[in-house]
Specification:
heterodimer, A: mainly alpha, MetI-like fold, 2 domains, two-stranded antiparallel ribbon, 15 helices, 2 strands, 1% strand, B: alpha+beta, PH-domain like, three-stranded antiparallel sheet, 5 helices, 6 strands, 43% helix, elongated, transmembrane (chain A), transport (chain A), MetI-like_sf (chain A), BPD_transp_1_N (chain A)
Chain lengths: 332, 186
C-alpha cells in the first residue's frame, strides 16, 4: 500500500502545479485586468482616472510584470499563506475570505454526511426490496430530487418558511453574530441554521447516490455467487453484507472525489439565493470584477479539494477492493 | 465426508526458478527515482521558502512518507529471498523465514494508479509462525512463490479472502478450496 500511496502523491503534486498554471492563465484570459474594469466603471459614471495614477497602481499591484513573474510570485505567496491582494476589497485575500472558508467547509462536510447517511440505507432497502411499494415511493422521491434544481428548492423553502412560520431561513447564523469572533453562541447558531442549506444542497446528490447504490447492488445481487450462497443456506443478511454490498460500494466510494468540488461549486447559486456567507457568491463576484487573486485563490481551493477528494477515494477503493480487473495486466 | 484440508497432499511441484530471488535493478531504480522526486518536491520548498503551517504539515508528512519509501527500497535492494520445499526465507534487513507447514495467512492485493486499473502491480504478504514476509510482483520468481504459497495455504486449511482468490485466478493459479465451504458442505 505504501508504494501505491507514494505513486498517487507523486501524481497529485504535479497535477496541482499544472492546475495552478491553468487557473492563473484562465483568470488572465479576459482582456484587460482589474484596473481596466475599474476605469471602465468609473468612465460609465462620468468619472476619470489620470494615466499617471493608473500606471502607478498597475506597478504597485505588479500588473505590469510579465505573466510568468506574476505566476511565480502568486505561487510562492500561496506557500507562505499569502494568497495575494483583493483589488475590489482593498484587503489581503486571506482577510477577505475570513470565516467564509470555514463556513463553506462546515456546510460541505455536513452535506456529504447527510448524503451518505440518507442514501446508504435507502439504496440498500430499494435494492433488496425491488419493485415493492417502498421501492416505488423512494424511487419517485429520488427522481423528484434529481429533477428539482437546488436553487428552486431553496426558493420554495424560503417561501413556505415565510408563509407558514413567518420566519426567514436565509443565512447561516443570526445576524447579530455576523462579523463577530467565534463563540459558543455563534457555533450553536450556525448549527441551528445549518440543516436547511444541507437539505437543499444535498437533495440532488442524495437522490443520485440512491439510484447509483441501488443499481450497483442489484447487479451484484443477481450474480451467480450470491444465488449459490443463498442456495447453500447463508443467512440473507450475511449474503448481502459479506460480498455484494462491499463490491457495490466501489462506485459509491469513487464518487467522494467528485462530491467535494460539486458541493462547493454547485452550492454557489443556492448560497446567493439563501444569502449564505460561503465562498460561492464571493467567487462569482470576483470572476465578474476580474479580481484575479481572489478568484484564483477560490479556483485553486476548488482544485485542491478535487485532487484531495480523488486521492482519498482512490485510497479508500484500494483498501476496499484491491483486485485485478480481468482485461488489465499486472506489470512485472 | 470431505477430506480434511490438513490431510491433503501437496500437488504442486516447485517450478524452475532462480535459487536466489531479488528485485531487478530497473524496478529498484524506478522506486529510488520516485523517492528522490518526492523528497525534492516536498523538502525543497520546506527548506528554501517560508511555508505556512497549513501547507508545511502536509508537505512534511509527505516528506516523511517519501523517506520511509526510500528506506524500504534500500531494504528491498539488500533482501534476498530463497524458496525450497520447507519454506520461504528472506535474508537481509527485517528478514524472516516461514515454513510452508506453518503458513497461516496469504494475502494478494493488486494496485494500479491508472483509471483503467491496468499496468499495476501485485503485493503479497505471507504470514506464519509469528513472521510476515512482504514482497511485490517486481520480484523475480514472484509467480512461483505465490503458487507454492497457495498450495501450502490449501494444505494448511487457510481461508483466503475473495480478493486474494480473484487475484490468484488472474495470475493463472487455481486457488485452494475454501475450508469453510468444505466444512459446511460436509
Amino acid at each position: 500500500m505504501l508504494g501505491y500511496v507514494i505513486r498517487r502523491i507523486l501524481i497529485m503534486i504535479p497535477t496541482l502545479l499544472a492546475i495552478s498554471v491553468i487557473t492563473f492563465v484562465i483568470i488572465q484570459l479576459p482582456p484587460g485586468d482589474y484596473l481596466t474594469t475599474l476605469v471602465n466603471e468609473m468612465q460609465s459614471r462620468g468619472e476619470g482616472m489620470d494615466q499617471g495614477r493608473l500606471a502607478m497602481l498597475r506597478e504597485s499591484y505588479g500588473l505590469d510584470r510579465p505573466m510568468h513573474e506574476q505566476y511565480a510570485l502568486w505561487l510562492a505567496g500561496m506557500l507562505r499563506g499569502d494568497f495575494g491582494y483583493s483589488f475590489e476589497y482593498n484587503m489581503p485575500v486571506s482577510d477577505v475570505v475570513g470565516d467564509r472558508l470555514w463556513l463553506t467547509a462546515i456546510v460541505s462536510g455536513a452535506t456529504i454526511v447527510f448524503i451518505w447517511v440518507v442514501s446508504f440505507p435507502i439504496g440498500i432497502y430499494s435494492a433488496t426490496r425491488q419493485y415493492s411499494l417502498g421501492d416505488y415511493a423512494l424511487t419517485f422521491l429520488g427522481f423528484l430530487g434529481l429533477a428539482t434544481p437546488s436553487f428552486l428548492l431553496a426558493l420554495v423553502m424560503l417561501y413556505f418558511a415565510n408563509v407558514w412560520f413567518g420566519t426567514s431561513i436565509g443565512g447561516l447564523m443570526d445576524p447579530r453574530y455576523l462579523g463577530q469572533p467565534w463563540s459558543w453562541g455563534k457555533a450553536m447558531s450556525v448549527l441551528e441554521h445549518l440543516w436547511i442549506p444541507v437539505i437543499v444542497i444535498g437533495t440532488a446528490g442524495t437522490a443520485a447516490m440512491i439510484r447509483r447504490l441501488r443499481a450497483n447492488l442489484l447487479d451484484e445481487l443477481h450474480k451467480p455467487y450470491v444465488v449459490t450462497a443463498r442456495a447453500k443456506g447463508l443467512p440473507p443478511g450475511r449474503a448481502l453484507v459479506k460480498y455484494p454490498l462491499r463490491v457495490a460500494l466501489n462506485p459509491f466510494v469513487s464518487d467522494i472525489g467528485n462530491l467535494l468540488p460539486q458541493i462547493v461549486s454547485g452550492a454557489a447559486v443556492v448560497s446567493v439565493v439563501m444569502s449564505l456567507p460561503t465562498t460561492g457568491p464571493m467567487l462569482l463576484q470576483a470572476l465578474r470584477s476580474q479580481d484575479m487573486y481572489l478568484a484564483g485563490s477560490f479556483l485553486m481551493f476548488l482544485a485542491v479539494l478535487t485532487v484531495i477528494g480523488v486521492f482519498l477515494s482512490d485510497l479508500a477503493l484500494a483498501a476496499l477492493d484491491p483486485r485485478i480487473r480481468l482485461g488489465g495486466g499486472a506489470s512485472r | 465426508m470431505a477430506e480434511l484440508p490438513m490431510a491433503r497432499p501437496s500437488t504442486v511441484e516447485t517450478p524452475p526458478m532462480p535459487a536466489e530471488m531479488r528485485y531487478p535493478a530497473g524496478a529498484l531504480a524506478g522506486d529510488y527515482a520516485r523517492a528522490g522526486a518526492g523528497l525534492a518536491l516536498t523538502v525543497l520548498p520546506l527548506a528554501l521558502l517560508p511555508v505556512t503551517p497549513w501547507i508545511a504539515v502536509p508537505l512534511g508528512a509527505c516528506a516523511v512518507l517519501f523517506a520511509v519509501f526510500a528506506a524500504r527500497t534500500a531494504q528491498r535492494q539488500m533482501t534476498r529471498l530463497t524458496m525450497d520445499g520447507d519454506g520461504l526465507r528472506a535474508d537481509g534487513p527485517l528478514g524472516a523465514a516461514i515454513r510452508w507447514d506453518k503458513l497461516s495467512d496469504l494475502r494478494l492485493r493488486y494496485y494500479a494508479t491508472r483509471r483503467g486499473r491496468d499496468d499495476g502491480w501485485m503485493q503479497a504478504a505471507l504470514a506464519g509462525g509469528g513472521k510476515t514476509i512482504r514482497f511485490d510482483s517486481n520480484l523475480e520468481g514472484f509467480d512461483a512463490v505465490i503458487e507454492r504459497a497457495s498450495d501450502a495455504a490449501g494444505r494448511n486449511g487457510v481461508a483466503l479472502s475473495p480478493v486474494t482468490v480473484d487475484n490468484l485466478i488472474a495470475l493463472g493459479i487455481e486457488p485452494p478450496d475454501d475450508p469453510n465451504e468444505e466444512a459446511s458442505a460436509s
